[in-house]
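lol ok so funny story. i was supposed to be doing the assay writeup but got distracted and ended up predicting the structure for this chain instead. priorities right. anyway since i did it might as well share w the group, maybe its usefull for someone
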Amino acid sequence: MGFRGKNCAITLTGILAGYLLAMPVTLRADDASVGNSFSASEFRPGSVDLVAKQRLQVEAIEARYGPYDVRLKEALKGLGYRLRQEGEFEAASDAFKRALHISRVNEGLYNESQLAIVERLIEVDQQLARWDEVNDHFAYLEHLYKKLYKLDDPRLESGLRKVVAWHFDASNFNLNGNRLEHLRKAHGLLKLRLQSAELTLSGEDPLLDSLKRNIERSEYFLYLNSDIHRELSTDRRRAMRDRYLANID
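and the output, tada:
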């Protein structure tokens, strides 16, 4: 599964297809600071002149230094920002995707400057309600955090909060039809966050208890959606039916 765009080809592996189940699942992020870091923000009307000026800057750099020069990264990010202000989300997405590609070409496949660009892509695709693309971006964001930071680096735990919050939201609202798969992903990432938190936080930090509670909740909901639970439920219903019929006789 990869980012869709003319200038960016990012391949991700390990994303499994989940099955949609009827039972609603409601979980929350484990601390108030998480929420959805990429909720739609209010956009102020900008000036078309600023967009045109930013385009000219991109074109000038490209004409002088070539289409992959590192200076284009910031110019394209600026263009994406201006386009987003104008509500031109599709064009903004293209600009951010190209900035991401140039970052990978010049600064390596995995570098910290990509994090902010991916977050901007998430914001834009949320505005367009392109949930499969949003999911792809969060999968890549998770991939980046795991590549950039070790388990004992607090930036890993704090970065993965955003990804867990997305999977909770996607599961709660069934945003792309893979409710159970999002719940599984959230559960796995909660356990990884707990491992990291235990290495980086004091034993009294309330986040540790919060993580443990959410792990228990996600385990419970996964059990409710398991084949074992469904089989037990079927057996119970059959037994109740048999008792009812016996009383009638």
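The chain has nine helices and no strands. Residues 1-29, 31-46 have pLDDT under 50 and may be disordered.
back to the writeup now i swear
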